[in-house]
Amino acid sequence: MVKLTKIYTRGGDTGQTSLVGGMRISKDNSRIEAYGSVDEANSVIGIARLSTGDEADKMLFRIQNDMFDLGADLATPADETASDAFAPDEMTLRITEAQVTRLEHEIDTMNRELSALTSFTLPAGSAASAHLHLARTVTRRAERHAVSAAGEMAINPAAIKYLNRLSDHLFVLTRYLNNKGADDVLWVPGANR
Protein backbone atom coordinates (compact mmCIF):
# COMPACT_ATOMS: atom_id res chain seq x y z
CA MET A 1 0.00 0.00 0.00
CA VAL A 2 1.26 3.45 -0.87
CA LYS A 3 1.42 5.89 2.03
CA LEU A 4 2.44 9.48 1.45
CA THR A 5 3.14 11.54 4.53
CA LYS A 6 5.08 14.37 2.94
CA ILE A 7 4.37 15.79 -0.51
CA TYR A 8 7.51 17.80 -1.15
CA THR A 9 11.01 16.46 -0.59
CA ARG A 10 13.15 19.12 -2.30
CA GLY A 11 14.97 16.22 -3.98
CA GLY A 12 14.02 17.44 -7.44
CA ASP A 13 15.08 21.04 -6.99
CA THR A 14 18.25 20.48 -9.04
CA GLY A 15 16.44 18.96 -12.05
CA GLN A 16 16.89 15.33 -11.02
CA THR A 17 14.32 12.81 -9.84
CA SER A 18 14.41 9.31 -8.39
CA LEU A 19 13.23 6.18 -10.10
CA VAL A 20 11.82 3.25 -8.16
CA GLY A 21 14.86 1.80 -6.41
CA GLY A 22 16.52 5.17 -5.88
CA MET A 23 18.47 5.75 -9.12
CA ARG A 24 18.66 9.50 -9.84
CA ILE A 25 18.13 10.75 -13.41
CA SER A 26 17.43 14.06 -15.14
CA LYS A 27 13.82 15.17 -15.28
CA ASP A 28 14.12 15.60 -19.05
CA ASN A 29 15.02 11.92 -19.55
CA SER A 30 12.74 10.16 -22.06
CA ARG A 31 11.64 7.70 -19.35
CA ILE A 32 10.42 10.63 -17.24
CA GLU A 33 8.80 12.23 -20.30
CA ALA A 34 6.98 8.94 -20.94
CA TYR A 35 5.47 8.50 -17.50
CA GLY A 36 4.80 12.23 -17.25
CA SER A 37 2.74 12.01 -20.43
CA VAL A 38 0.96 8.94 -19.06
CA ASP A 39 0.04 11.00 -16.00
CA GLU A 40 -1.19 13.84 -18.22
CA ALA A 41 -3.33 11.49 -20.34
CA ASN A 42 -4.76 9.99 -17.15
CA SER A 43 -5.78 13.47 -16.00
CA VAL A 44 -7.54 14.19 -19.29
CA ILE A 45 -9.36 10.86 -19.01
CA GLY A 46 -10.50 11.96 -15.56
CA ILE A 47 -12.02 15.09 -17.12
CA ALA A 48 -13.70 13.01 -19.84
CA ARG A 49 -15.25 10.74 -17.20
CA LEU A 50 -17.30 13.71 -16.00
CA SER A 51 -19.29 13.44 -19.25
CA THR A 52 -19.52 9.68 -19.84
CA GLY A 53 -22.20 7.16 -19.08
CA ASP A 54 -21.86 4.15 -16.83
CA GLU A 55 -20.46 1.65 -19.35
CA ALA A 56 -17.71 3.98 -20.62
CA ASP A 57 -16.99 5.19 -17.10
CA LYS A 58 -16.28 1.63 -15.94
CA MET A 59 -13.83 1.08 -18.80
CA LEU A 60 -12.12 4.42 -18.17
CA PHE A 61 -11.87 3.74 -14.44
CA ARG A 62 -10.03 0.47 -15.19
CA ILE A 63 -7.81 2.29 -17.68
CA GLN A 64 -6.98 5.03 -15.16
CA ASN A 65 -5.93 2.38 -12.66
CA ASP A 66 -3.85 0.64 -15.36
CA MET A 67 -2.19 3.96 -16.12
CA PHE A 68 -0.90 4.21 -12.57
CA ASP A 69 0.48 0.68 -13.01
CA LEU A 70 1.99 1.84 -16.30
CA GLY A 71 3.60 4.88 -14.67
CA ALA A 72 5.07 2.63 -11.98
CA ASP A 73 6.30 0.24 -14.66
CA LEU A 74 8.03 3.04 -16.59
CA ALA A 75 9.54 4.41 -13.35
CA THR A 76 11.05 1.03 -12.43
CA PRO A 77 14.33 0.08 -14.13
CA ALA A 78 14.49 -3.51 -15.29
CA ASP A 79 16.56 -6.07 -13.43
CA GLU A 80 18.50 -7.09 -16.51
CA THR A 81 20.13 -9.94 -14.59
CA ALA A 82 16.75 -11.65 -14.07
CA SER A 83 15.58 -14.32 -16.52
CA ASP A 84 12.40 -12.26 -17.10
CA ALA A 85 13.34 -8.64 -16.43
CA PHE A 86 9.71 -7.51 -16.78
CA ALA A 87 7.87 -10.10 -14.73
CA PRO A 88 5.57 -8.47 -12.17
CA ASP A 89 5.89 -9.52 -8.55
CA GLU A 90 4.69 -8.38 -5.13
CA MET A 91 7.02 -5.37 -5.15
CA THR A 92 7.19 -4.52 -8.86
CA LEU A 93 4.24 -3.36 -10.94
CA ARG A 94 4.49 -4.23 -14.62
CA ILE A 95 1.96 -3.96 -17.42
CA THR A 96 1.01 -7.45 -18.57
CA GLU A 97 -0.22 -8.93 -21.84
CA ALA A 98 -3.58 -9.57 -20.12
CA GLN A 99 -4.08 -5.80 -19.74
CA VAL A 100 -3.33 -5.30 -23.46
CA THR A 101 -5.71 -8.14 -24.34
CA ARG A 102 -8.50 -6.57 -22.25
CA LEU A 103 -8.13 -3.34 -24.24
CA GLU A 104 -8.30 -5.30 -27.49
CA HIS A 105 -11.46 -7.10 -26.35
CA GLU A 106 -13.12 -3.80 -25.42
CA ILE A 107 -12.08 -2.25 -28.77
CA ASP A 108 -13.55 -5.20 -30.69
CA THR A 109 -16.79 -5.10 -28.67
CA MET A 110 -17.32 -1.37 -29.25
CA ASN A 111 -16.19 -1.47 -32.87
CA ARG A 112 -18.86 -4.05 -33.80
CA GLU A 113 -21.51 -1.41 -33.06
CA LEU A 114 -19.92 1.49 -34.98
CA SER A 115 -20.82 2.75 -38.42
CA ALA A 116 -18.03 2.49 -40.97
CA LEU A 117 -15.65 5.44 -41.20
CA THR A 118 -15.80 7.40 -44.46
CA SER A 119 -13.16 9.99 -43.47
CA PHE A 120 -10.91 10.89 -40.56
CA THR A 121 -12.79 12.23 -37.56
CA LEU A 122 -12.16 15.66 -36.15
CA PRO A 123 -11.58 15.83 -32.37
CA ALA A 124 -15.15 16.94 -31.71
CA GLY A 125 -18.66 15.70 -31.11
CA SER A 126 -19.63 15.18 -27.49
CA ALA A 127 -17.65 16.75 -24.65
CA ALA A 128 -16.46 13.31 -23.56
CA SER A 129 -15.30 12.49 -27.08
CA ALA A 130 -13.41 15.75 -27.46
CA HIS A 131 -11.61 15.17 -24.15
CA LEU A 132 -10.83 11.57 -25.08
CA HIS A 133 -9.33 12.75 -28.38
CA LEU A 134 -7.01 14.93 -26.30
CA ALA A 135 -6.20 11.96 -24.05
CA ARG A 136 -5.51 9.89 -27.19
CA THR A 137 -3.00 12.41 -28.52
CA VAL A 138 -1.25 12.68 -25.15
CA THR A 139 -1.13 8.86 -25.05
CA ARG A 140 0.53 8.86 -28.46
CA ARG A 141 3.12 11.30 -27.09
CA ALA A 142 3.72 8.98 -24.12
CA GLU A 143 4.18 6.11 -26.56
CA ARG A 144 6.76 8.11 -28.57
CA HIS A 145 8.68 8.90 -25.38
CA ALA A 146 8.53 5.26 -24.25
CA VAL A 147 9.86 4.12 -27.63
CA SER A 148 12.63 6.70 -27.35
CA ALA A 149 13.45 5.47 -23.84
CA ALA A 150 13.50 1.87 -25.09
CA GLY A 151 16.28 2.89 -27.49
CA GLU A 152 18.37 3.97 -24.49
CA MET A 153 17.41 1.50 -21.74
CA ALA A 154 15.33 -1.61 -21.11
CA ILE A 155 11.60 -0.76 -21.15
CA ASN A 156 8.84 -3.34 -20.74
CA PRO A 157 7.61 -4.19 -24.27
CA ALA A 158 4.11 -4.75 -22.87
CA ALA A 159 4.09 -1.14 -21.64
CA ILE A 160 4.69 0.12 -25.18
CA LYS A 161 2.02 -2.25 -26.53
CA TYR A 162 -0.40 -0.99 -23.88
CA LEU A 163 0.17 2.63 -24.92
CA ASN A 164 -0.33 1.75 -28.58
CA ARG A 165 -3.54 -0.17 -27.88
CA LEU A 166 -4.79 2.48 -25.44
CA SER A 167 -4.69 5.19 -28.10
CA ASP A 168 -6.69 2.88 -30.39
CA HIS A 169 -9.14 2.21 -27.55
CA LEU A 170 -9.60 5.91 -26.87
CA PHE A 171 -10.22 6.57 -30.57
CA VAL A 172 -12.87 3.86 -30.81
CA LEU A 173 -14.44 5.08 -27.57
CA THR A 174 -14.67 8.64 -28.97
CA ARG A 175 -16.72 7.24 -31.84
CA TYR A 176 -18.78 5.05 -29.54
CA LEU A 177 -19.65 8.07 -27.39
CA ASN A 178 -20.53 10.06 -30.51
CA ASN A 179 -23.75 8.06 -30.89
CA LYS A 180 -21.83 5.00 -32.13
CA GLY A 181 -20.26 7.04 -34.91
CA ALA A 182 -23.48 8.68 -36.15
CA ASP A 183 -22.47 12.02 -34.59
CA ASP A 184 -18.80 11.92 -35.59
CA VAL A 185 -17.55 15.18 -37.05
CA LEU A 186 -15.73 14.20 -40.22
CA TRP A 187 -12.80 15.87 -41.91
CA VAL A 188 -13.70 17.26 -45.34
CA PRO A 189 -10.38 17.53 -47.22
CA GLY A 190 -9.87 20.94 -48.82
CA ALA A 191 -13.30 22.20 -47.71
CA ASN A 192 -12.13 25.74 -47.03
CA ARG A 193 -9.88 26.45 -50.01
Map the helices and strands.
Layout: E1 16-18, E2 24-26, H1 30-48, H2 54-74, H3 97-111, H4 127-150, H5 157-177
Antiparallel strand pairs: 1-2
Helix pairs in contact: 1-2, 1-4, 2-5, 3-5, 4-5
Treating each run of at least 4 consecutive H or I residues as one helix, how many helices? Answer: 5
Mean pLDDT: 89
Question: What's the CATH superfamily, by name?
Answer: Cobalamin adenosyltransferase-like
Query: What's the CATH C level?
Result: Mainly Alpha
Task: Provide the number of structural domains.
Answer: 1
Residue fraction in strands: under 5%
At the fold tier of CATH, the topology name is Hypothetical Protein Ta1238, Chain: A
| Terminal Cα span | 57 Å
Structure description:
This protein is mostly helical and 193 residues long. It has one domain: Hypothetical Protein Ta1238, Chain: A, CATH 1.20.1200. It contains five helices and two strands. The longest helix is centred in the last third of the chain and has 24 residues, at 127-150.
